Amino acid sequence: MERTQTSLKKTSQIRLKPIHRSSISDNIVQQIIALISSGELKAGQRLPSERDLCLRFGAGRSSLREALRCLSIMGVLTARVGDGTSVAMDGNKFLETVLQWRMSVQQHKIEDLMQVRIALEGISSEAAATNADEADLKTLEDLIAKMENVVSDPKRFAALDLELHLALARSSKNKLLLDLITLIQGQLERGVSRVLQTQNAIPLSVKEHRNIIAAIIARRPEKAHEAMDTHLKAAIRRYRNSIAEQSDPKRWKTEGRAP
Question: Which of 239, 125, 238 is nearest to 181 (CA)?
Answer without folding.
Answer: 125
